[in-house]
Amino acid sequence: MLSPKRTMGQYSTPQETVTYMTKNLLKYLPSSVQELKILDPCTGDGIFIKSLLQSGVSAEHLFAFDIDPLTPPPDEKVHFIQTDFLKESNAEKFDAIIGNPPYKSKRQSSYLLENKKYLLDEFQEVGIHNLYTLFIYKGIQKLKDGGILTMIVQDSFLSNVYYKNFRKYVLNHTEIKEIILAPRRLFHKGKADVRTCILTLKKRPSALIDKNQSMRLIDRLIEQEYTNPPYESIQYLNQIHFENNPNYNYSINVPIEILSLFHSPYVPLGDVVKIVTGISTGNDKYFLREQSEVTNYGDWLPFYKNGGSKDAWYYEPKYYIHKNWPQYKNIHSNFMVRNPSYYYKEGITCSSMGVEFSAAYLPPGSLFGVNANLFPKNQEDLFYFLGLLNSLLVKYMLRKFLNRTNMITAGYLKKLPYIEPSESLKEVVVESTISLIEGKKKDPSFNTQKLQRELDQAVFESYGIPEATQAHVKRFCKDLLENI
Known about the structure:
Elements: H1 4-8, H2 15-26, E1 38-40, H3 47-54, E2 62-66, E3 79-82, E4 94-99, H4 110-114, H5 116-122, H6 131-142, E5 143-154, H7 164-173, E6 174-181, E7 196-203, E8 214-218, E9 234-238, H8 240-244, H9 256-259, E10 274-276, H10 284-287, E11 288-290, E12 300-304, E13 319-322, H11 328-331, E14 347-350, E15 359-362, E16 367-368, E17 373-375, H12 379-389, H13 392-402, H14 410-414, H15 423-442, H16 449-462, H17 467-478, H18 480-483
Parallel strand pairs: 1-2, 1-4, 2-3, 4-5, 6-8, 12-16
Antiparallel strand pairs: 5-7, 6-7, 8-9, 10-17, 11-13, 12-13, 14-15, 14-17
């Protein structure tokens, strides 16, 4: 049986991370204030409170809340209350809040389900997509003006579209002092495979927020680098950039040359090429057949739904759907048909799940699923857009900036910036793409490296990316799993 902490999605924070967060919090607080109040709203094992005590903070200034009735006080002199912080109605305000709140989405959390009505009313401004964002939102409300919040949380809020309103709220009510992408395997000892970041905010009235104040943004590092991060991992960026990003995305160590592509004047890819989703069967195991299961190809149609990283450029269909599929939508309520005018047309089909993003040629006569699919106006544009989508630059913009989670939907592709290439550079991309498709048709293990390099260089030049930034993009893409 899982403990209440594990059920809520709460894990013990490693000591080195706690020590850094404690020191970072205290440097923003005046040492002479007698009425200082610091809160850990989800104290758990009390590691943050103990660290503050060891740093010289008096117990009378420390407050610890926890929902679990079995949680013991972290120290007998600390103000400890067994309470649900998200339902806390006391008007008391704090100078600082520190902690590691639970990470549970609304699909995973029984707490969110059981308290849905209350939470929807209380947190409607930001939505109830995950527990940790509710703790940050409530934490900001419980801070005094000028108060500091530092929390280590799941990093999905940085770019996922569901957290757009949350990001906007933070920008409108705080000055972001620092965001650090925490070590990749920080919670592996607790059997949690989750990417996290350390967020430090200063609460300010909206009218007093300095939009041009400089945020300290630090790329993925290891625990031993907290106090002295690698130079190339540090970026100082004015907060106004986050407001100008699509969906208020929080970009961490994205070079200004790439950030500026998303700022005005900005032409989204969705404005120049049709990007659509197709059939959602509601039950792929029932409606789709793998290639080995199909005996009469006259009765079955190719169905492209989510190619893998090795399927870039071209791959034989892995799934088939029966030619009588139009009847299914009238019989099965979960069988959804979208954008049928694009069915059977030549186009581009994209992956949607996984760390690696890839795009492949979509042959005429095929159907496609809820992954993103593009339908350019002519074949030359088809080959150009296919090359563009498989370029390192686009892979970087998708996975580093637009969405750090493992699902790339049509909505994210539509937000990619588009710059019309010169005829000569477009020709390089088109010819490389044609050669790559033909090579993969003949041999799925075809060596793509030389053509890929030529194509990548043409795309870099089209987008005006300088050599130093090209090197940054290549380093990131070389090991996506570790760098995201």
